[in-house]
Amino acid sequence: MRQVVFAHFLTRLPGDAIIEFDICGEDGRAVYHNDSITINSRGHLVFGGCDTVELARTYKTPLYVMDEVAIRRAARHLRSALEDVYPDAEVIYASKAFCTVAMCRLVDEEGLSLDVSSGGELYTALVAGFPPEKIYFHGNNKSPEEIEMGLKAGIGRFMVDNLFELELINQLAGRLKKKADIILRITPGVEAHTHDYIRTGQIDSKFGIGITGGQAQRAVEKALAMDNVELRGFHCHIGSQIQEIEPYVLSAGIMMDFISDVRESTGFTASELDLGGGIGIRYVESDARMDLPSLFAAISKTIADKAERHGIPLPRLLIEPGRYIVGEAGITLYTVGAVKDIPGVRTYVAVDGGMADNPRVALYRAQYEAVVANKANLRPTAVVSIAGKACESGDMLIWDIELPRVEPGDIIAVLSTGAYTYSMASNYNRFPRPACVFVSEGEAYCVVERETYEDIIAKDRLPGAIGQARPSAAAL
Ligand code: LLP
């Protein structure tokens, strides 16, 4: 039976437009914000089938919680939507969004390839047993050690960012008697921002090789003349959290024109075109979800039209989404401590985490929705601001959100935090980094343990005279 319950808060939840309520027996199951979230009969927020208040009790807070089912769903949706319109295609998960050994395993199980952008991400993938030939190595300043690590592991592609790196890879591959498959990162002169994109003639970016001015063309010629690299194709990445189709269409067209120009001038035909990541997700109500079938249909039409016009074969199409796969699949749980009301000004609700586990608000003024997890069925009563516990005024999680009455001990769930939170976390103020738990249809398991104070000082040393000064120094 389907009917509306909790009508009093129905209009106040984030994402009114998609709220649905299912009643299963006595258990009011509410679905809102995204498919992972419901509310149980205790009025608790349920995520991935797990009561979040119980999760907070078991694993402590702050706590990253990721819904494994939602990650798999996003991965499958991407693959099927892309392959439906462009059969010779590959989805590469950009691990910078969220990278752990368990996540790499999951990505492999879903048949995706992996984008790593550092030795650390590569190491994580290799430890996870990720097939090296499906690894794409990004980064604008790979060290010789990182390049050697990739060469020895036999990774699939080096995504070459600049001429210095091209030389370095050629040299190191020669020394190791290997041939490195490479893709050149090109700056197409399209930059997309949320709700906005610009086309720049002059290219000012630390990433990639510009088309205008002929630099990219020269890089191709160089690569083709090298003995130890094999050029496979071209890559571009035009931005992140993109919610429009147009900038992708524009960059796909520019890249196809480039492929054609290169073919005319050198005879080389690129067999791979990587259009990068950037697909936007829903953080707050005003964020539109990208319509994947429309996006991929538009991209593939542009590529097909250009291929026909230029008389070139269709390249294998690669995309590298990170945020889309994990962003909405994650929430972060916090416990409320001090609640400070400044009459007539603002109420600060301080939680036990903040910018150290999620620096996106301080860095980008990112916006989030939140729910009081143990009062998920109560109506909002006031506007408050959720503050972190770091020694920085800018350490805020949410400015001005309507919530039910918040008291010390309440559990706050910040939504859509699966991407670029754990992966960007720090030990600022020597806060131990939180644990990360995967949930799946009511089961929870820890994929990253919470750091301890011992972990925090594990690499500290007391050298020389400083070490002599205190007897307790021997412990280090
Ligand atoms: N490929 C390349 C070459 C990239 O540089 C990136 C992201 C991606 C793929 C994946 O983009 P996504 O699909 O996740 O948007 N820390 C920022 C985001 C930085 C993205 C950097 N590059 C944030 O928290 O919003």
How many domains, in number, for the residues? Answer: 2
Low-confidence stretches: 1-31
Q: Which cofactors or ions or other ligands sit in this model?
A: ligand LLP
The H-level CATH homologous superfamily of the largest domain, spelled out, is Alanine racemase
**Global outline:** globular
Helix content: 25-40%
Distance between the termini: 63 Å
Assembly category: single chain
On the 0 to 100 scale, the average pLDDT is: 91
The CATH architecture term of the largest domain is Alpha-Beta Barrel
User: Total helix count?
Assistant: 14
Q: Could you please say which CATH topology of the largest domain applies here?
A: TIM Barrel
Secondary structure: number of strands: 25
Explained architecture:
The termini are far apart. It is globular and about 70 Å long. It contains 14 helices and 25 strands. Helix 6 crosses helix 7 and helix 9 packs parallel to helix 10. It folds into two domains: 189 residues, Lyase, Ornithine Decarboxylase, Chain A, domain 1; 259 residues, TIM Barrel (Alpha-Beta Barrel), CATH 3.20.20. Bound molecules: ligand LLP. The site of ligand LLP has 20 residues, from helix 11 and helix 12.
SSE layout and pairing:
Elements: H1 7-10, E1 20-24, E2 27-31, E3 37-39, E4 45-47, E5 50-51, H2 52-59, E6 63-67, H3 68-85, E7 89-94, H4 101-109, E8 113-116, H5 119-127, E9 135-137, H6 144-153, E10 157-160, H7 163-175, E11 180-187, E12 190-193, E13 196-199, E14 209-210, H8 215-225, E15 229-235, H9 246-266, E16 272-274, H10 292-310, E17 316-319, H11 323-326, E18 330-342, E19 346-351, H12 360-364, E20 370-372, E21 382-387, E22 396-403, E23 411-415, E24 435-440, E25 443-448, H13 453-457, H14 464-468
Parallel strand pairs: 6-24, 7-8, 7-17, 8-9, 9-10, 10-11, 11-14, 11-15, 15-16, 16-17, 19-21
Antiparallel strand pairs: 1-2, 3-4, 4-5, 6-18, 12-13, 18-19, 18-23, 20-23, 21-22, 24-25
Helix pairs in contact: 3-10, 6-7, 9-10
Bound molecules: ligand LLP.
Ligand LLP binds next to helix 11 and helix 12.
